[in-house]
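Appendix B. Chain record.
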Amino acid sequence: MAWGNIYLISAISIIGGGLFGFDISSMSAILGTNQHKCYFNQGPEGHPYTNSVSCSGPIANVQGGITASMAAGSWLGALISGFISDTLGRKKAIMIGAVIWCIGSTIICASQNIAMLIVGRVINGLCVGICSAQVLVYISELAPPSKRGRLVGAQQWAITWGIMIIISYGCSFIDGAAAFRIPWGLQMIPAIILFVGMIPLPESPREMCEFERNNADVTYLELFKPNMINRTHIGIFTQIWSQLTGMNVMMYYITYVFAMAGLTGNNLLVSSSIQYVINVVMTVPALLYVDRWGRRPTLLIGAALMMTWLFADAGILKSYGHYAGPQGVDNTPEASWSVSGPASKAVIACSYLFVASYAPTWGPISWIYPPELYPLRVRGKAVALATSANWAFNFALGYFVPPAFVNIKWQTYVVFGVFCCAMFMHVYFMFPETAGKTLEEIESIFTDPAGPHCIGTPAWKTKKTTGAALVHERGIYDEEKIGVMHHESPERTAEFTKL
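Structure tokens predicted for this chain:
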């Protein structure tokens, strides 16, 4: 049955993912501005503590709490999204998220103090949690198997576009609170577009069949039964590892990193913007080829490359940098380490290379992979649980990193480098290949009686296939085409005839 142009449907629905990107850009770009630091100043420098024109801004723990509050709301939003989706459908869940975003953005835009800012960001987080979980399920259930990776991965591309649209950069030239209120208010525009754009779109076809509503009695406990525990752990850790790469930390707090490298003022904002552009551009190859590359090789290569750049950054900072004092660089305690000369350029280059390694690998795959793992009966809640793990660790890291830069300085990079090493080994031994497979074929991987109990086919023995997916999508059943395929590969013929 035709459900409209799947690319148009995906283009509208992934705006829900783009909202998270807008949050990153509107927050990270203003963290280092004097307007933001002076309005929410907690000393010791600047009004009302001293007559200094330069303000210290919120203390490290408080700034971590401000940043992490959005992720805290997202964690809750992801968990409740499963219930909303099962009751009202994927489409209505996404639309509810858009309304919540407008409410939260209104509160943030009008923030009079830190407490009000945190409340607004928590409400915005509810939207991000709902949309980030249910957009994945919505697209994966509408998309044909051979295009599923590309279309679901487009959510990550939407996030990168949201990050790159630096409305905060132009506003940084405005004096006073308007410098951050305007970008925080403009965040409502994409949510309004999402709500209006979703109105004519179809509901998930499986929802139309009432299957999901008939199974609304599914609980999260079902995901921890012996036949589900392995794929539940894989889905959760896919999202956890995507956070422990340190990528979102690099996005939120890149101004601290570049300040350590000696960049200030407009040079700091422009250099940060280059990173956002790299993120957008390097996500494109994944959208075009992720279904050809496969999930496992992409994740393994990404982990290895990111580990390399993180350890390189740590080594450069340790070897060529020095402690910047308790007030940090430019009265920013989080910029606690200073490096200059060619070494500073190397730090910036490694940061760019890190982003270029994440963007085509863990960025899109962390959204593509979880919805492919689960049977329809539990998919809504399973993806919601996996996505909630993403936001739980996003919260923890958002809160942890500013104090980490203050207290352990360059060793922060070592921590994330070790995480990348651990995720490489975990993916190799436990994450099966799902690219090009129908959801039924993926089910057979985890229920393979020849494999270890509760695990199925060992992950390193799984390979990328496309034949059955194309049959499912295009209806290639005639004997002539099957005969041609038999001439090319007898194994593929057996696969086709089983279908």
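Further analysis of this model is presented in Appendix C.
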